[in-house]
Amino acid sequence: MACLGLAGCAAFASPGAVAAPAVHPAQWPRPAAALPADPQLEARIEALLARMTPAEKVGQLVQGDIDSLTAADLRQVPLGSVLNGANSAPRHDRLASPREWLELADRFYAAAAAAAPLPLLWATDAIHGHNDIRGATIFPHNIGLGAARDPALLRRIGAATALEVRATGLDWTFAPTVAVVRDVRWGRSYESYGENPQLVAECAAALVEGLQGRAGTPEFLDAAHVLATAKHFLGDGGTGGRDEGDNTQSEAALRRDAAAYVAAIGAGVQAVMASFSSWHGVKMHGNRALLTGVLKERMGFDGLVIGDWDGHAQLPGCSAVSCPAAIDAGIDVVMAPAGWRDFYANTLAQARSGAIPAARLDEAVRRVLRVKLRAHLPEEGPPSSRPFAGHFELLGSSAHRALARRAVRESLVLLKNEHALLPLAPRARVLVAGQGADNVTQQCGGFTLDWQGTRPGRDIRPAESIYAGIRAAVTAAGGSVQLSPSGEFGARPDVAIVVFGESPYAEGAGDLTSLAYDGEARDRALLERLHAQGIAVVAVLISGRPLWIEGELAAADAFVAAWLPGAEGGGVADVLFRAPDGSRRHDFRGRLPVSWPRAPSAGASPQPLFPYGYGLRYASR
Ligand code: BGC
């Protein structure tokens, strides 16, 4: 359709090989601006922009990965930002010390200062704590925090994570994921706060506030806070359980699922990441109507839009090293992890030839500058000179670990409690069984020290396994504990706690066609065997999503969904057991953030086994 200027268009179609349905920006919400207009800031941006060469401008739009560049590279090419992908680290060593991260941040900062007009930003995926760094506090993944429904807790988790990121000299996190998961076969379900757009919106706004500080107050993006990113715009959770899939929802349904962007913008989020997914066959990285027409123009988002990891390469006519179409659609910073050098060179040529219009180039640069100035980057100085840098005692501090443990307690959802078995008396003979019982790797899940979450538990420190937490609670009360993953025992136990579930995964590697999981037959047999011996059985499921567990549910007297609780497994024992004096210290308070499908093939079912919001208390009948 003929629609030249975006602003005046009531509706416009997207370019590309396939035409997405028309979008009607005027029908989308317009959040109240988080920050008042700031003419001084805008004047500063214009003054900087006027002095920048085309090469400097293009550099601000390109982001490379730290595993594919050196400080010497940054002296030559004026990049605006770097990221560490979920497998990248100083010296390519994921066990590099926090000090090495900070030292590398300093080296990169100094190198970039020689070439670029503004300091470099370093982004990381601190998505459940500062999870790429050895020694950091590892919080539950988002699905558990959605179950907890506690915005104040999320604010505190955001603030704690920001401090740990600051300790290592980094500036920016690619969190929160604000996907609304509509089919739990999706491998990224655990990154979602749930299936309800309002729940996701509340959680997202709270985490953004915690990470960045409250907009409009002096704490906003001060030295204790970091830049946040709402991702992945838009519709990543609505692709029928397929990662990077096609979302075929109507515009109205997509708009409903965008509530978290409205909330995050209202909280002042400074970055939005485009989704790998498509809407009606059009890749989001090329969807100008949604990125520019809706997000920027209608919703008034004035921060920067970043592309996802080579996501631009999937657009028709693009490659990893060239993609004017993504910039035209509204991507301001292109994540070109390994191909950054050629991407930069090609983009500079395209800017010079006019293939990328000067006005669009300037608009993208303005957004990057706005974010950098709001983050006080020019005034802050080298990473190690900033107030919290080098305070490595913040990583895994007792206060942060206590917060993570509280988050675990709040996230647990009780699905069954026959004969009021829970809370258990701790002065008892307890058998702890199952592959997940003493398995920090499994309870942390993906995005923990590496992308797929496969590091051995000994690398994830500090940490407490679920078993270790149970042992502490029971022995403190004078009871006894036996650990046996296969469920063997000597003296007959009073109760068996069986911990089992999914092995770690991330992104598309976690996509399932069936909700039956890898260890299903083994775990059900273990539960049935204990149950058949007349032993009271408590099942604890570790998983990034609901799974098909009808057999396990039937064999257990009590059943707890623990999600991916992270490193503070002691939070599970806190709720399973009474205090040593017999009193009730806690209760279950988690409620399902997604409905629990009844059939293994139904990632989203109209007649769930347990509805959205379900969750028992000790005393429920
Ligand atoms: C993911 C993003 C992540 C990025 C950088 C991508 O594979 O989709 O969520 O922020 O990698 O690690």
Note down, in words, how this protein is organized.
Residues 1-16 have low confidence and may be disordered. The chain is globular, with a radius of gyration of 25 Å. It has 621 residues and is α/β, with parallel strands linked by helices. It has 2 domains: 25-394, Glycoside hydrolase, family 3, N-terminal domain (TIM Barrel, Alpha-Beta Barrel); 412-576, Glycoside hydrolase family 3 C-terminal domain (Rossmann fold, 3-Layer(aba) Sandwich). Helix 6 (151-167) runs parallel beside helix 7. The strands form 4 sheets. It has a 6-stranded mixed β-sheet with strand order 12-17-16-15-13-14, with helices on both faces. Strands 4-3-2-1-11 form a 5-stranded parallel β-sheet. Strands 5-7-10 form a 3-stranded parallel β-sheet. It has helices spanning 39-51, 54-60, 71-76, 98-115, 142-148, 151-167, 197-212, 251-256, 259-266, 288-298, 324-329, 340-353, 358-374, 377-380, 398-411, 440-444, 466-476, 520-532, 550-555, 570-576; strands at residues 62-65, 81-83, 121-124, 172-173, 229-233, 246-247, 271-274, 278-279, 282-283, 304-306, 334-335, 413-417, 429-433, 480-483, 495-501, 536-542, 558-563. Residues 83, 85-86, 125, 174, 231, 308-309, 507 line the site of beta-D-glucopyranose (BGC).
Spans of at least 5 consecutive residues with low confidence: 1-16
Overall body shape = globular
CATH-derived topology of the largest domain: TIM Barrel
Question: What is the oligomeric state here?
Answer: single chain
* % residues in beta strands: 5-15%
CATH architecture of the largest domain: Alpha-Beta Barrel
CATH class of the largest domain: Alpha Beta
CA-to-CA gap between the ends? Answer: 60 Å
How helix-rich are the residues, as a percent range? 25-40%
Count of helical regions? 20
Provide mean pLDDT, rounded: 95
Broad structural category: alpha/beta
Q: Largest sheet, described in full?
A: 6 strands, mixed
* Largest beta sheet: strand ordering: 12-17-16-15-13-14
**CATH superfamily descriptor of the largest domain:** Glycoside hydrolase, family 3, N-terminal domain
Beta-strand segment tally: 17
Number of domains: 2
Which ions and ligands are bound to the chains? beta-D-glucopyranose
C-alpha Rg (nearest Å) = 25 Å
